[in-house]
Amino acid sequence: MGFWYAMCWINIVNEWERRPVLLFGRYVKTLGAGISLLEPILFDTLDDVPVQDIVIEVKVPEVQTKDNVGIALVGVLTYRITADRVRDAVVQVEDVYDSVLERSFSTLADVGATNDLDQLLEHRDVFCTAITAKLAERVSEWGVTIKAFELKSFSINDEAVEQAIAMKARASKEGEAELVRAQMQKQIATALNEAAATYDDAGRWLKGTEVMLELCRSGQNNTVLIPTSITEALTLLKPTTTVS
To answer: What are the residue ranges in the chain where pLDDT is below 50?
Structure first.
């Protein structure tokens, strides 16, 4: 009997945890990592509190933006309970983990309501920074340090708005493609003009003849109609040969 009583004095705490200790219902100390001796009849211990980074996924099915567009958000929250403030995490709030999650929901809704949809789409980093700062202020009294909030994904609940955004993005990409195509055509035309300026009559005749031969060698059984004006122009450019 005495052996088991002696064994009950031993408390082993993991490196990444801390153990709250109560004396007659009053919080008296926190056991650190390693082996500690504690009288088992007078003292009570609570569940160990992790002091490592905790990463949770935060899902909010409906957030109303400033311009009245409903969106669903999925974020990743990283926080830590400070080792020297384990008492606050146990005493100041009933369940620190559920409370942090609930505060995350409300903070997402509050910050989302102060931003337009375009701001969320274009400045996600600013949105995440605002979430982190506001949430850190709300949970600091519980001994919780907010490390980061990252926006994992979001979707627009209004199908018409989502289609309008998709059409806008598609039009923007098509416009960029047309601009690149026009710039390339301009460069090609400039190069061709520079090359044409170096041709004499013989060179123009040879180039025109080459183009016509390429049309004839296209490999397709098609009839190629060549205007007589082109053939006449090539005839006029044909170089004359002199026999000595």
So the answer is: 243-244
Environment class of residue 144 by beta-carbon count within 10 Å: exposed (0-12), middle (13-18) or buried (19+)? buried
Residue 37's H or E segment, with its range, is strand 34-37
- For residue range 71-126, list pLDDT tens digits in order: 888 999 999 999 999 999 999 999 999 999 999 999 988 888 888 887 887 888 88
Within a 10 A sphere around the Cβ of 170, how many other Cβ atoms? 10
φ, ψ for residue 152 (rounded to 5)? -80, -50
Distance CA 161, CA 70 (A): 10
Strand partners, 57: 76
Angstrom distance (rounded) from CA 61 to CA 156 = 10
Task: Give me the DSSP letters along 78-129.
Answer: EEEE-GGGHHHHHHS-S-HHHHHHHHHHHHHHHHHHTS-HHHHHH-HHHHHH
d(CA 64, CA 73): 11
CB atoms near residue 21 (< 10 Å)? 18
| Integer Cα distance of 86 and 18 in angstroms | 7
Supply the pLDDT for residue 17: 94
Architecture per CATH, 54-157: 2-Layer Sandwich (3.30)
